[in-house]
Structure formats: C-alpha cells, structure tokens
Amino acid sequence: MANRIPIRRRRRTKIIATLGPASADPQVIERLFRGGADIFRLNFSHGSHEDHAARIVTIREIERRTGRPIGILADVQGPKLRVGKFAGGRVQLQSGQPFRLDLSPVPGDVRRVQLPHPEIIHAARIGTTLLLDDGKLRLGVTRQRDDHLETEVLVGGPLSDRKGVNVPDVALPIPALTEKDRADLAFALDQGVEFIGLSFVQRPEDVAEAKAIADGRAWIMVKMEKPQAVEQMDAILDLADAVMVARGDLGVECPPEEVPLIQKRIIRGARTRGIPVVVATQMLESMISAPTPTRAEASDVATAVFDGADAVMLSAETAAGSYPFEAVNIMDRIVARTEQDPGWRAITDNNRPEPRHRASDAIATAARQVATTIEAEAIAAFTSTGSTVLRVARERPSAPIIGMTASERTARRLALVWGVHPVQSKEPASMTDMVAKGVRAAAAEGFATSGDEVVVVAGVPFGTPGTTNALRVAVVE
Hints:
Blueprint: E1 14-19, H1 26-35, E2 39-43, H2 49-66, E3 71-75, E4 90-93, E5 98-102, E6 112-114, H3 118-123, E7 129-132, E8 137-144, E9 148-155, E10 157-160, E11 165-166, H4 179-191, E12 195-198, H5 204-214, E13 219-224, H6 227-231, H7 233-239, E14 242-246, H8 247-253, H9 259-273, E15 277-280, H10 295-307, E16 311-314, H11 316-319, H12 324-339, H13 342-350, H14 359-374, E17 378-382, H15 387-394, E18 401-405, H16 408-414, E19 420-424, H17 431-444, E20 453-458, E21 470-475
Parallel strand pairs: 1-2, 1-16, 2-3, 3-12, 5-6, 12-13, 13-14, 14-15, 15-16, 17-18, 17-20, 18-19
Antiparallel strand pairs: 4-10, 5-9, 7-8, 7-11, 8-9, 20-21
Helix pairs in contact: 1-2, 1-12, 5-7, 7-9, 10-12, 14-15
C-alpha cells in the first residue's frame, strides 16, 4: 500500500451513487468509484439481502485495493403506502367521478379499490387530498367512514395495481420503520454500513427510535420528504446525524414552487448544526436513457453546490440507467467546475454560519482563518468520532481538510463530509507525534510538498470525543 498512487478528488462536494442492476458488476462499481463516487447507496426498496451483501463485499475489496475509505448508505424503504389490485390490472379514472377506497381485498374496478391502510381511512377528513401514482392523480375525500372513504376524482388518469398513495394534508399515525425496515436495518448494521437512510420521517420520535436501534453503529441520515417533517425541521435536525433533501416524494406532497425554497431551508439548517446534508432525486434524470444531461440538470447540480450541500446524489441514473459511469463522470465535472468559479467561494464565505460559543468552535474557526492567512496547503484535523472534522468542515475553509482518524468506521463516515479527504492513521502519542503525522499525511496524499505549511487541529487528550482544543502550524520538511 506504501507505493499506491493517492486518489484525491479535485472538489469539495461529494458524490453518492446508487447501485442497482446497471451497476452490480464489480468492475462497474470500481469504475464508478474511480470516476468520482465517494459513497455508494444501497436501496433496500429493491434487491435481496444477498444482493446487497455481495455489493458490500465488492466495495470493501475496492477500498482495500485503493487504500481509500468508502462510505456505504443503506436506504431503508419506510412505510410505502399503496392501493390494492384491479381486476383488469388498471382502470381509467375520469375527473369528477366518485371513487371509493375501502379495506376489502376484492380486486377493484373503475368504482372502487382496496386501500389496505386503515390508518389513512381513520385519519382522513372531508376535504383531505389523496395523491396517487406520484401525484399524477388527485382525489378529494367527500365522506369518511370506519371502513372506507368516498372520494371525488379531482384529477383523473390511468391507475394500475399497487400504485403509491401520498397524503400531504395529514400526519399519519404510522411508524417510520416497518417490520421489513427493522429486518433490513438489522442486516445493514450487522454488515457494518456507515449510514442508514430513514425514509418518510414525520416527527422527531421517528429519528430517536432509529438512533436507539443503531446505537452509534451508523449515522442516521434523515430523508426530508414529508411536509410534516418540514414543519418540525428544527427538532428533527437536532437529532439527525445527517440529512437528505429527498425531492422525489417531497415534490409530490408539496407544491413544486415550494421545493427549491425547502431545499435551501434544509441546507441552511444542516449547515448551522454542522451535520452533512445531501441533495437528491432527479439531479441528472435524463441520463437514465441519454449519455449527456440537460442544461437545466447541470444547473440544478451547480445550484446544490452553491447552496453548500455536502453531497449530491445519483439514483436511477447509476442504479438502472444506460450510462452509469457517464452520469458520475459528468456530475464530477459539473461540481468541480462550479467550485472553480470565484462566485462560488464568495457565496460560500458569505453564507458561513456564526461560530457557536464553544472553545471547539473557536479552534475550528481559527484553523480556517490561519489557513487562509498563511495560505496553508491543507488542514489536518485529528478525530476519533468525527466531531473535530465536522467542526472544521462547518467553516468551509479554502484549504482542503485531511480527516485523520484511527477508526476505520469514522474514516468511512468522513467520506461524506464536505471538503474532507479521510485518512486512517494510528492515534498520535503526543503533540509532536500529531504534528508529524499530519505533515506526513499532507505530503503522502499529494496535498503538500517540501516547504509548504499545514495547519494541524486536534483534541487533547487524544481519543477523547468532543474536545477540539489544540492548533499548530507545521512546515513540510
């Protein structure tokens, strides 16, 4: 490993690539990583545990060969709500017609269909809106009974078996984790993944439950995709380890004109707290079937970078599309080019949150200021749990951040964090050893050469979580 060529990204914002049928081959996965993917997402809405286990083995082998920590996100499905089946497989609903949703498992027709979710029937009220098939059809509740809902079709169209149901007006009394999710969560934690994507969160209690189950073995990444979650955003972000702006279902349940503003609010909230934030869904959607993105999609990716996201995510583009490598490659190019623009640095500096009144935040702020003043080539931040590196990354320094840790798990988690190049290294024995390790890493990883200056940050005593209290400036010999 000593003779390996360092893999160093020329950008701060990270890229998450979803694996699926189009990217199941180990050679494809390695090509995606070398092309720019920092984190791989496993979508537990699809595939078996055996499928996911095989991909995890492949990722760990790539990690071993390249010497670079790679994070894995296990995205659990959550309580997906669906209608039942139709006798003919599908029907055509006309605007203005009555349509009944009930608990009967009898195959439906143009007049009714099963809604196997009594929680929706009990929570709905006259005037409640139901969205079917990702919002393509819209129903309004006209009558509510214990075992069924009478509705009027507000926006008609074709409706087929097992299409999804969204209820934007109501906080449903359902847990964020289904029995399937619990089984998937147990499997993913046993496999040692770094992040758990928590779907369809509605309330802070959903996050607390998942964190209790994970018990520190993985960071909980809350997917903000329900209006109810947006309403309680502050309380949810206070509990989350990371957050995803999941614009798919969010765009179904919220008016389209609200989604960009919600995206910016979530990013600001995450930035203030210093937790990683991911922007996801339909970023390069046209590349599922085309070798290049639309100009609007390129602009969408750049906007997320300007907003200060830690990462941008590819979903079907790499999981099921015809051009998975091209999607990662062009996203890498868009992000890197955006970060070269002088306006990006000006916006990043202007949007920097105020430091909190803590010694650790003061040190992180000082590290950024010192690095800027002396034009340091890098900031080497030592951490055991990741907290020191997160504090430095919150500052969005112009110098790259080398995240130094003795923990393999922490190094993989840091692969998600803005501007961080994670390096696994033994715990320093002293301040002198810490400085020497930081300088050696900066040189070995291609950030600095002889005569360059490096800012070194750590918490003393070493290995004690939450203590960021030491700063040194060192010169590469």
